[in-house]
Amino acid sequence: MRASRLVSLLLLLQNRGRMTAAELASALEVSERTIYRDAEALSGAGIPLYADRGAGGGYRLVEGYRTRLTGLTSGEAGSLFLSGLPDAAAQLGLGAEMAAADLKLLAALPQELHRGAERVRARFHLDAPGWWRRAEETPHLSAIAAAVWDQHTLDVAYRRWDGTEVRRRLDPLGIVLKGGSWYFLARPHPEPGGSAPPAGPSADPRPRTFRVSRVRELGVREETFERPADFDLAACWSEWSSEFEHSRHRLRTRVRLSRRGLELVHALSSPITAAGVQGLESGADGWCEAELHVESVAVATAEFAAYGPEIEVLEPAELRESLSRHLRAAAALYTG
């Protein structure tokens, strides 16, 4: 275990440059005291590892030093094949490259690791789209991926969620696969004034998110752009998706829930809606009141109808009336 950690510490310094003891401890999930001991052990073994004191200091390797201690454990070798997304790679236009990389990696592995990697690939398969959903048509995905890689500006005709179509000039920064749907994050250029084409990135540097399946036309420009040095795709996507989910839940409702209704909230509603019942318990009569955030009257009507008699909407009046009409119409189909 310690030998593996020492190699990891060495590779972190080799790949990232100077790092503080706190940064190394966080990356390796150990205490700073452990980092001090490991650094002494590496230095004692002849590794040219130096500690810079004072503000901005930390551990570093001597300039130009490279280690060859890059061997994989059996678990690490297997995880490389487990993380493979053959369908996604094919959609991105990288199917042949991924297959070739698999073959090269298998050929480079020692025989004992080769067998372990083959077992993982034979026993695990990832199917990204959810049940009763088919993968979206994304004819422009591979071109967008190439533009992300080569930093080429795009001219895009895009259909919004409400059906309107807009044209945008974009600097594509990254691609995300979420629940079987492809998205790309891009920095927009200013919209054209009159017939003049837009020039340069927008004054608002924040990237926007676009669904690849809604791209109707795509043009790849010869011009390239400078990728923002501080852009973090994973962090940007996490921030956007959190804001998106909360922005959709704009309607605040007040409801009564039975004991069974309290259980159903987690099964029938989103986690954001279900947050409204956190810590609640039914009263002596078996019911409790809760404030639930939902997307809209239309969405809440269909959602709360699934609760049957386990929920009563108190506010807003518009939702109460909409749910009443919905349930009366359903009941009328079964009378007589």
From TrEMBL:
Keyword Transcription regulation attributed: yes
Record protein name field: Helix-turn-helix transcriptional regulator
Domain named HTH deoR-type: residues: 2-57
Region feature (Disordered): 188-207
SUPFAM superfamilies: Winged helix' DNA-binding domain
Biased composition (Low complexity): 192-203
Top-level division of the source organism's lineage: Bacteria
Keyword terms: Transcription, Transcription regulation
Species name: Streptomonospora algeriensis
